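Give me the fold.
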Amino acid sequence: MINRRQRFKIDAVKPAKQDAQQRVYNFNEVSQPYSPEAAIEQAQRCLYCDHAPCSKACPLHNDIPAALFLLGQGDFIGAALKFMETSNFPDVCGRICPQEKQCEGSCVIANRNPAVCIGKLEAFVIDYVRKNYGYPKREKAAPTGMKVAVVGAGPAGLAVAEELAVLGHEVVVYDMWPYPGGLLLYGIPNFKLNKDIVFAKIRCLEEMGIQFVCDFRVGKDHPVEEFFKKGFDLVFLGYGAVKGGEMKVPGEDELKNIYQATEYLVRGNLPPELLPDVWRNLPDPKPHHTGVTIVIGGGDTAMDCVRTARRLNPEAKVYCVYRRSEVEMPGRYEERVNAVEEGV
């Protein structure tokens, strides 16, 4: 096993990206996966610090040094299981979390060299195990006889459903969208999160015995009390932020081709069969995409929108308008770089 001095000398290598001029013509993931050999080498850059500042900076407190040690030894399954000890969605978090502000931002190597690419390595190892062996099966406790309704099939609802199922409870997940996944499916574009990852997770949860009921609007069509009448012992409400913010400016509700981010991203990124009827049955389910597109905002959602707009019409101009400076934009720097590369 190489020593710390040798680890410190390993060059940092980030995964390759699709060419910017080509990727605006598809919705495939921009970041390409490491090869197994490259992932092992990059994991060996970790110094396995005793105080593990990366783990402390992680909201889930993943045991990152242990996972990277296993990965560095070529134990892909062991590394995946280590990440899964504290995370229900390591393959998602490896892609979406702002690592530069959390684990990677606390990496001690970053004082002199680029930080270990923790997020990319986390995504790689889970992807590798899922594609080659399937999701590792979690042991379930004996049935408790308790029945739980989970409202919302997004990240929160799916995580709760999984943990309750492991404890032996019967779980039924309800959601207003046509397919489970919530934000993972109906919010995050495919060029950041391959939807096959979401579909695979749903299949895994179904194999655990979790049931899904979609096109089911709790509150509007079905009061919460209805669940208790049906024999549920507990109801978890994890329906998320279903309504976007409003600018409250003239014309916002009256002019044509004005979209809230959710509608724009859903219609712009998903095939008709996954859309609600109200959009699926339109003459063109896609949002308006001829001429110039202007996206107002500077966060990650705004970057998702401008990058979606470039893919809907690669020949058209797309602008991002923000009230403050670029330095003050709240979204990830990596996403702004990707947007500029793509011609925004």
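The chain has a mean pLDDT of 96.
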